[in-house]
Amino acid sequence: MSKKIAVLPCDGAGKEVVPEAIKVLRAAGADFDFEEFDVNADAYLRDGVPITPEVWAELAKADSILFGAVGDERVNHTNYLAGVLLRLRFELDLYVNLRPAKLYDDRLSPLRREDRRHVDLLTVRENTEGLYVGMGGRFKKGTQDEIATQEDINTHLGVTRILEHAFQVARREVVMIDKSNAMTYAGGLWQERWKAVAAQHPKTKTRHLLVDAAAMQLVKDPSQFDVIVTGNLFGDILSDLTAELVGGMGIAPSANINPKTGRGLFEPVHGTAPDIAGKGLVNPVGAILSASMMVRHLGDPQMADAIEGAVESAIRARECTRDIGGSLSTSQAGDAVVKRLKY
Ligand code: ATP
């Protein structure tokens, strides 16, 4: 039976890259039933809510969600982001955020030393807790006595399940990253759960790094990393860094999944890219590779490999957009991937 895919292109660059991902999925022969929903800034301004209850009911039923990016200067960014992307992550309990970084072509590396350019790592980011849950407040707002708090939420269940997932996807090593020397309460819980979960996986190599040391090591020698597991904030920041190590925001994919329910939302790491949106300059590769992650999640690793292989081949041939050294438009870059599909 064909899988039901809810499509949410949203705003700016998202509207340009999601159609390219669908084009590639169709060309690959994916047995998907796509349904696009009107979730975007225009709909928010019209309806007064980021997602209407009717649309939410449909999204909650879909096998997977293919997502672009949200953001528009006409709406309050925090409320809009919380009402769409964070709501989907939190309410569908998509607690695993996978952000792979793979160097498909040597010329995309910013590193001078050739021996350090082999990058094929995966960030496993906790996606439903941490500093992003929106707890806290501002007291005496606007006065010189103002106090602002932002709560960092870490639960036994949340920390344990993300650590366990990291071991499930590791090939040779899991590196846990925190700031437990300064953030002792949250860090204490991460450290305790880390030791307990690692003890259950004695065959996998493990290492702990403080986030500052990890940032340094990622730039110094990214080839040393396999799987990184970390909290919501550090995962967000470090995965932008790892994206730059392999060619930039235009090619970074991500998956938001709940391995227990099977639910998933797949999106490029980049945002709406207002500086280049609407001009045919946006790179569709991040969205196409996110679609490949969706195919893999839905149980077709062969098709996922075929899409990834076609992307790699197009990038190597420089049949790609300007940000990664080509001269093609968004749509032409999507066509170049389709042309190379061997499946
Ligand atoms: P958001 O706040 O929505 O996460 P952001 O401020 O992080 O967005 P992005 O939209 O991620 O910004 O863009 C950051 C930079 O990367 C911009 O200069 C943008 O032009 C570039 N960029 C982002 N996405 C792409 C893409 N698909 N192709 C090419 N360049 C991109």
- Content-based structural category: alpha/beta
Instruction: Give the ligands present.
Output: adenosine-5'-triphosphate
Helix content: 40-55%
- Identify the strand order in the major beta sheet: 2-1-3-12-11-4-5-10-8-9
Question: Which stretches are poorly predicted, pLDDT < 50 over at least 5 residues?
Answer: none
Per the CATH scheme, the topology name of the largest domain is Isopropylmalate Dehydrogenase
Elements, N to C (H/E): EHEHHEHEEEEHEHEHEHEEHHH
What characteristic shape results from the CA principal axes?
globular
Count the helices. How many?
11
Query: What would CATH call the homologous superfamily of the largest domain?
Result: Isopropylmalate Dehydrogenase
For the record, what CATH class of the largest domain applies?
A: Alpha Beta
Please summarize the sheet with the most strands: 10 strands, mixed
Radius of gyration: 20 Å
Please state roughly what percent of the residues sit in beta strands, choosing from under 5%, 5-15%, 15-25%, 25-35%, 35-45% or over 45%.
Answer: 15-25%
How many individual β-strands? 12
Q: Which CATH-level-2 architecture of the largest domain?
A: 3-Layer(aba) Sandwich
Task: Summarize the helices and strands and which ones pair or pack.
Elements: E1 3-10, H1 13-28, E2 32-36, H2 41-47, H3 53-61, E3 64-69, H4 77-91, E4 96-102, E5 120-126, E6 136-139, E7 147-150, H5 156-169, E8 173-178, H6 184-199, E9 205-210, H7 211-220, E10 227-230, H8 232-245, E11 253-257, E12 264-268, H9 285-297, H10 301-316, H11 330-339
Parallel strand pairs: 1-2, 1-3, 3-12, 5-10, 8-9, 8-10
Antiparallel strand pairs: 4-5, 4-11, 6-7, 11-12
Helix pairs in contact: 1-9, 1-11, 5-6, 7-8, 9-10, 10-11
